[in-house]
Amino acid sequence: MQWPLTYHEKKRVVQLAIVLALAGWIAADALLGGAAYWQRVWLRLPLLLTGSGSGWPLTGGFALNIFLGLGSMALAAIMGTLLAFGMMAKSRLVRLPCFFVMNFLRNSPWLVLLFAMLYIIPFNVRLFGVSIAVPAFVKAVIGLSLPTAANFAEIIRGAVQSIHSGQWEAARALGYMPMAIYSRIILPQALRRMIPGWMNLYALLMIATSLATVTGIQDVLTTLNTLLSMENERVIVYFYITTLFLFFAYCYPIALLARRMEQSVKGDTL
Amino acid sequence: MFGLDYSWLSDPVYQGWLLRGTLNTIGLALASSAVAVLIGTFGALALSLRIAWLDALIELFVELFRNTPPLLQMLFFYFTLSTIGLRVTDPVTGLSVPLLSAFDCALVSLSFFGGALCIEAFRSGLESLPRSVNEAARSLGYSRWGRFRRIEVPIASRICLPALTNILTNLFKTTSQASVITVPELMYYAGQIYNDTFRTAEVMLLVLLIYVSLVSVLSWGMSRIERALAFPGYGKGH
């Protein structure tokens, strides 16, 4: 580092100082009696992370939030892609209902949708004469995937529309069929612009998985609440900070990476 | 229709609950939006001063509140602020009660969450101004403050409006999570109603419809504002 520091370097130095100050504060607090509390948190950390006291098998806790996020994202990707192509269809009969569904899902609160799915999806589904119980986890996945799918579709639509219209015209002039224009020309370019949006959406979804506690599955918040009922008032603060940090540690790197990619995609204007 | 039973809606008690819940939701959303926009404005203003330590602090605030669940933030504020000392003595009973009520905690956490999003949006709006605009203003003899007030804010605010619409609708939707810390808003009363009537699916469908219509009105209003404020070259003024 050269001496007059650049603005960016100065900022990094200050950030390092803040992190050090926080670490120092935690250490000082630990010396003044916080250590016993942190020990309680450390003892319970496997339970918070995996839902079982020994750390295996992965039956709940933060691991369940991750599974929930992945499952909802996969379901949302399928529904969102269908919805996006529906919104870009030529026929108004297809396009307008798709727009309506997308707007409805995007304008409804995640928590309310989750609750609605919890109560609207029946406890038992009769399929080919066999009655199958629908577990709360499946309901949570469906409830979270609905708003995600709407956002997913918007990202696809936005990216496809951001491709310059000259690309369409050139492809048509070269005699490509409509499906071939999509698969060979538009989507390969649009995909680059979709990926940061999808990553941001995944981070958002991961944050929203905390809502799944209302369905009663043993996710990190349910586990936390069960744990806290056995702890004294003071330890609660430490447990909450730990759980907040879990989410931050998972979501921040994704958001950071998404922003990096956004920056790199910004330059290419075709 | 579809076997749904809405006969409970004729009960004036439930009507009153729904109305009060809706009004509380709107109130919470309005208050937190106002504070969030204020935080965003001052945050973006502070960032544009380019002071390294202030920038670092604001970035920490933004990243902390953007990357943790608002629900967990609310629970954190609700359950821990009173234990770490934010308590007052009630003059009537002489008991020590939490300084912040559930509503205040929800308001604080929603404002911070929205504020973090606003700072980010306003900052990128200010940064997206072409450098030439600023140089032109400087050569015309505008002071730093004059440039900010007369050139940067009017243009940047129009660039940010779509992002602000997103944030405000997002914030409105997030107010439903305040029901978890017993703030008596729409979701909370919905829970009360289906606990009484056991008509869970019907109540949730109705509440979903109310939320969707309110958010749709909000985003429609914002797009009207966008169009009214548009000037050639920026946002909807193309």
UniProtKB/TrEMBL annotation, chain A:
It is a multi-pass membrane protein. GO terms for biological process: amino acid transport. Keywords: Amino-acid transport, Cell membrane, Membrane, Transmembrane, Transmembrane helix, Transport. It comes from the Bacteria. GO terms for cellular component: ATP-binding cassette (ABC) transporter complex. The chain crosses the membrane at residues 12-38, 58-86, 98-121, 127-147, 199-217, 237-258. Residues 62-258 form the ABC transmembrane type-1 domain. It is found in: Cell inner membrane; Cell membrane. GO terms for molecular function: transmembrane transporter activity. Its main location: membrane. PROSITE patterns: ABC_TM1 (PS50928). Belongs to the binding-protein-dependent transport system permease family. HisMQ subfamily. This is Amino acid ABC transporter.
Automatic annotation (TrEMBL), chain B:
One of its GO terms (biological process) is amino acid transport. Gene3D superfamilies: MetI-like. Keywords: Amino-acid transport, Cell membrane, Membrane, Transmembrane, Transmembrane helix, Transport. Residues 22-219 form the ABC transmembrane type-1 domain. The chain crosses the membrane at residues 26-49, 203-222. GO terms for molecular function: transmembrane transporter activity. It is a multi-pass membrane protein. InterPro entries: AA_ABC_transptr_permease_3TM, ArtM/GltK/GlnP/TcyL/YhdX-like, MetI-like, MetI-like_sf. It comes from the Bacteria. SUPFAM superfamilies: MetI-like (SSF161098). GO terms for cellular component: ATP-binding cassette (ABC) transporter complex. PROSITE patterns: ABC_TM1. Part of the binding-protein-dependent transport system for glutamine; probably responsible for the translocation of the substrate across the membrane. Belongs to the binding-protein-dependent transport system permease family. HisMQ subfamily. This is ABC transporter permease. It comes from Ancylobacter defluvii.
